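Feature request disguised as a bug report, sorry. It would help if multi-protein outputs had a clear separator. Right now it looks like this:
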Amino acid sequence: MIYQGKSLTATLLEGGIAEVVFDAAGSVNKFDQQTVTELDELCAALESHNDVKGALVRSNKGAFIVGADITEFNQLFSLPDEEILNWVAKTSQVFDRFEDLPFPTVAAVNGFALGGGCEMTLACDLRVADTTARIGLPEVKLGLMPGFGGTVRLPRLIGADNALEWMTTGKDKKPEQAMADGALDAVVAPEKLRDAGLNMLTQAIEGRIDWQARRKQKTSPLSLNANESMMSFSTAKAMVAAVAGKHYPAPHMMVDTVAKAATMEREGALKLENEGFVKLAKTDAATAQIGIFTADQLVKGKGKKLAKSSSKEIKQAAVLGAGIMGGGIAYQSAVKGTPTVMKDIRQEALQLGLDEAAKILNKGMERGKVNARTLASTLNNIVPTLEYSTLKDADVVIEAVVENPKVKAAVLQETEQTVSKDAIICSNTSTISINSLAKSLQHPERFCGMHFFNPVHRMPLVEIIRGEKTSDETIAAVVAYALKMGKTPIVVNDCPGFLVNRVLFPYFAGFSQLLLDGADFVAVDKVMEKIFGWPMGPAYLIDVVGLDTADHAAGVMADGIPERMQRIANDPVQSLYQAGRLGQKNGKGFYNFGTDKRGKPTKTPAAEAYKLIGAEQKEFDTDEIIARLMVPMANEAVRCLEEGIVASAAEADMALLYGLGFPPFRGGIFRYMETLGLENFVALADKYADLGPMYQISDGLREMAASGKSYFA
């Protein structure tokens, strides 16, 4: 034994080969501070061992190394800049030390080699992977850039253009693509990986592979002349500006760092990388995106734990109500392998549901993401029917009929009389109280809400709504089913609008009042999209949702929470709806929708909408527009947390991110408030308190701000 640590070991094999094995105590290998320290100690042991002629690096886990330990980042990044710089510089020097070992090194990569794991492979002279490998530098998804030499070694290995595409998108690469780009030297079957690595290393030791030349390439300046350099980095900057925009500093920093380091050798280039990493670590975007990662882990962990506790397996599903939403739910269930009955009372509705599923599949085939087998198996898994009797074998039934409490209650009651005694019944209602709907059932313990978001196949979130009488087993089984469907389930307690729509409608109400006070809806949309970062501004979003749907839901919310969500007099949404403007569905809303000469969709502000709003226009500054929309949303989110509708701020943030497309660089509604500073948010809300109850903060939030507490403590 050359070296024995908690996370990695080195053993001397025949022929002078040191076999370095990563095998941490947990389920995966990560580069936490303990592992980095051990890697440094390992290098010292290898340097002092005279019999070592080469080193093979591999993993004993199902994945090579998944990256750095992100759980260490929050504490680490709260340190002064100098201390963060010291940490990242020392860590990257450990990778340099491994790269500088006086003999050839080979990485044998299985499963994920991401972030620091990818950087470990880059510090080796040669790389062989098996067919399960996924290699990449996803730091951009955390608002960061590689910090252990990735921006230095990868461009010198595969070229600046390829490297910047890898790093600025953060996408992991399949082994065939990685090999085509030059990041791998061979790809083999999993059972041949170790032997292939040993064989490659032996060739290097015997001089049949020039490993010194490969190493020199990674430590030298980039081989670009002045014209090539200008073209490469100008193109990269333009692409990043177009795709990432101004809200995400990390990809911009990567391009600048690689460009500035192009003429430098390793030491100077690494210094630039370390400095760039520290600057990004201190940005709000990094704090938000790291927060998203940890919140996502929390949500998924809770979901998996609940699913494991379920004793009921969903083998057969049913959807009541076809159409676009029902068809979308049936598709999502069927594509993940669950046979699904789709029931409606009209043949044309069933056809619409089947058409929706077929449309999704055909688009997938056009993009190369769906093959003929998947298309056929998915459509075969959907059984359209007009008969209730076909529900008798269903383990779960999802009601997705019209958003009317009387209609839903009647359908649920009839369903209960048809299905088996242990079948679970769910309602895909977006606003109607689950407790209210449960009154129509004899066994409310097997009933809950299962709220999907449109379009179903794209939106990750499913709200699982627990009623007063819903059993734990019902919740566990539905969570397990949602996970099987490929969705992210978040369990919330019942209230009007549940979590997502409950916080969305104060945002809409703030928008409506702003229009009545003279704001231009086009200007508001521009601010909320370009400045705040929403994928759609409020006017456009309401048009997409449908003004009829928005108006109906506003009525439900007003009845359920009258103290804050009373209907606004002359509400523009209601005015447009009553004038027959339904939004995208009939081409007329705040905007008029159509197509140009080439058949591309068009969206133009509707003069009719301005007339129906009827307010004398005036300009509002950006900060006021944002505040008047976001303060009501944040206040309602706080109340949801205080009332126990949602269990944690992290889950609320993920629900808005996955259900509404909350801007990721802001991290979620609670992270947004904390980035502003709770005291500053309280002062901002107080500034607009005279606008009504939606703008008045809770005593709990005021106390949190005064005492310097955090929602993420």
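(second protein starts here, but nothing in the output says so)
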Amino acid sequence: MGANLKKQKENMDAIKNLIESGNAIVGIEFGSTRIKAVLIDETNAPVAQGSHTWENSLVDGIWTYSQEEIIAGLQSAYSDLKSDVQKKFGVALKKIRALGISAMMHGYLAFDKNGTLLVPFRTWRNTITGEASEKLSSLFCYPIPERWSISHLYQAILNKEPHVKDISFFTTLAGFIHWKLTGQKVLGIGDASGMFPIDTATKNYNKKFIEKFDNLVADKKFAWKLEDLLPKVLLAGEDAGTLTADGAKLLDPTGELEAGAKLAPPEGDAGTGMIATNSVAKRTGNVSAGTSVFAMVVLEKDLSKAYNGLIDLVTTPDGALVAMAHANNCMGEFDHWVNLFDEVLKATGCNVDKGKLYGTLLKAALEGDKDCGGLLPFNYLSGESITGLTEGRPLFVRTQHANFTMPNFIRAQLFTALGALRTGMDILFDKENVKIDSLTGHGGFFKTAETGLTVMSAALHTPVSALETAGEGGPWGMAVLASYLVNGGGKTLDAWLAEKVFATSKKTTVSPKQDDIEGFNKFFARYTKGLAIEKAAIESIE
């Protein structure tokens, strides 16, 4: 047997033994369009995975996923992971040492004292809380975006929704799943920071703001106080409970999975993105680009003002202050165009692998004119708070003299995917003089790294990197947090990541070229002016 084959067999045997001995570690993340599960080995490398595809629904004007869809998706992704483990290593996944759940942040899941969901899950994608967001931001002198859970709660109060008086507990999607698996009503501090403002000195909810909120709604005479409704805040590495027998049966209805796994504090996709890109230290940042897009920078100091909620202030999984510029829309509209091109090819008798088609189109963007030849799409499948729009209307506009080519069309789709993000990042760069030593990208936007990094670096006029592991994204980041829970050994999170996870990672960095920056700036000026067209479409087309 050759040396390489022998080493491969030894690695396979080691992973097989790890799984059979019940020491595997798993992370599961609920994204907007996919639920992914990842199993890691002793070196924190991903070795098996599973997934489930799903899509939110617009029901009575609310973007939502049903409870049944949530649980079915969880079970499907885990089942797919089990199948991958069996296929690769020939063993059954029956016991897990540590587990972590992460999901899309924010939103609103409210329950009564019996654990009954009072209203359908309201996701981060909804832009129906503008009044609440504005009033709370003014009350606290602190940015409270529309997506935040407290905005949803207060808007329900303003709307005089009858369910509010019956609330016993409200949480995020990750907090809901974690509760079902462990019985514990807790949240990792990063996810909690998207429900209600965090005091980074105490690593807990801001008590002064809680008092202000209670006083604000005191005339309603609710039986509850806000602090009683919120999940308990935990830091990365703290014990968040164990997998109960009921939780094990919920996750794996076959009954093969044993109870007893330790669970990490449930986190949001912002926090797992920070982990996946090794961006938890000050002056580091990451940008996650997929269905939505957000960029986060770990701050050296507080921002000087609230900026009307255009910038989120959240935290790392260990409680450091982070500024986040978030846009609801990114690659969703591009995916629709890819599907259309796929239909066209099939209609001509050509069957092209979807992944190859996607990659080919992304590469073509680099051949386009620097400013996209005058083309202007808007990718607004939903509303966009950062540009002041409560609804979305995907559009494509051009003059009759524009250079309408395929490379320009694709480049314009990628540029518009970052238009709202750039609006927010200009605040950090230009008004707050925020400094970044490193900015690392992850998500579907970077599937073709050369294109993703080139376009992103031009849009943010700063070097952008991709780690070889960044493609694993949030579920891997959550698995790493679960590993930190049982293997951290008292080290700080950033030190442990540097030593145990990223010590040998390879990084690709693209620095923006001046003509690419100028091209994006020219497109961005057209984009900003063209928002009037988007607003008119919302008013005129139903």
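Even a blank line would do. Unrelated, but nice: The mean pLDDT is 94.
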